[in-house]
């Protein structure tokens, strides 16, 4: 009789372990499913989740905007004015900053028509991130009698200086 009790004892122990494992797995599965269903049906949880997602998207958008502002050389908040107009005694000087334009005066166009001076430019850059195209245009209306045939354009370092003489009316 002692032999029978010894032989059956491991079987009962094995069955007890299997039963306890099965009950534990069932309870864990039930807990996870119950928690998930409660979260899915709880409107407060869904609202908080949506708010977190929106805050995350807003932070990403702010980072993107900051990055775009830093890359835009034509934005006055990031860089100084690209085109400046200076009136002197008998001439106007339009000073163009060539740094954002690859220091190339060929990227700048000047047009004078009916006392309206328009300075425009375009530069294309191909890089690792793709192609970037930057355009600008700025117009000035000048009251004086401009001498269009005496306009001079000179590059001095990083500046492109356009001189337009005028006569008083």
Brief summary of the model shown:
Helix content is 41%, strand content 34%. With 169 residues, it is of the alpha+beta class. It folds into 2 domains: 2-71; 83-167, Immunoglobulin-like (Sandwich), CATH 2.60.40.
Overview of this protein structure:
With 169 residues, this protein is α+β, with helices and mostly antiparallel strands. The chain folds into 2 domains: 70 residues; 85 residues, Immunoglobulin-like. The strands form 2 sheets. Strands 1, 2, 6, 7 and 8 form a 5-stranded antiparallel β-sheet that branches. Strands 3-4-5 form a 3-stranded antiparallel β-sheet, with no helix packed on it. The protein is rod-shaped, with a radius of gyration of 38 Å. The mean pLDDT is 82.
Which short descriptors sum up this protein?
169 residues; alpha+beta; Immunoglobulin-like; 5-stranded antiparallel sheet; 3-stranded antiparallel sheet; 2 helices; 41% helix
Q: How large is the count of helical segments? A: 2
Uncertain segments are none
Task: Specify the structural class.
Answer: alpha+beta
Largest sheet: 5 strands, antiparallel
Average pLDDT works out at: 82
State the end-to-end CA separation. 133 Å
What is the H-and-E element order? HHEEEEEEEE
β-strand percent reads 25-35%
Instruction: Predict the CATH topology of the largest domain.
Output: Immunoglobulin-like
> Class of the largest domain, according to the CATH hierarchy?
Mainly Beta
Tell the overall outline.
Answer: rod-shaped
Count of all domains: 2
Radius of gyration, taken over Cα atoms and rounded to an integer in Å: 38 Å
The counted number of beta strands is 8
Helical proportion, percent range: 40-55%
CATH architecture of the largest domain: Sandwich
